Amino acid sequence: MKLIIWNKANSCSPATYAQRRTIRVNRHGYIYLSGALTAEMELRDGCRLNLANDEQNPKDWYLCRTQHEEGFRLRGDRPGKNAATKRLTGGVEFSNVCLASKLLALAKAECFSVRYLVAKEPVVVDGVKYYKILTANPIPGMPRNAAKK
After folding, report:
1. Which residues on neighbouring strands pair with residue 94, listed in sequence order?
2. Domain extents for the chain?
3. What is the pLDDT of residues 58-102, one digit of tens each?
4. 5, 110, 132, 147: least CB-packed within 10 angstroms?
5. Which of 22, 23, 28 is nearest to 96 (CA)?
6. How far is it, in rounded angstroms, from Cα 73 to Cα 14?
7. Rounded Cα gap, residues 111 and 8, in angstroms
């Protein structure tokens, strides 16, 4: 038997994840950026976002803000501030089943959703800031069957 012990040290509430730079992806195609990441990338409702994949390293994915119409249009979450941290709790989201499937496949987990941390320091390529999605350590969400109930 191989047990995983869950306690306060390794389990976080949704409010805690709002304070971290994360991207959450689910099987319905929704891709959600946390409030902390949204604030850091200066994103808001109506902004546009691209995802980039490194051809040489297929597991490396990046986020970047764009002005181009081809970018994914972001929808804003309920704005609010966490009184304890003074950080925004509302993030932004968009939908794309194809990209969500690719990001979920990286986790190799049979769950409804996966959350990834995002690097704090962007990589600058041709003057564009790309924030790396840390795909090596996915944080699985609820089991796939639990989401159907």
Report:
1. 31
2. 23-147
3. 999 999 999 999 999 999 865 555 445 444 457 899 999 999 999
4. 5
5. 28
6. 24
7. 21
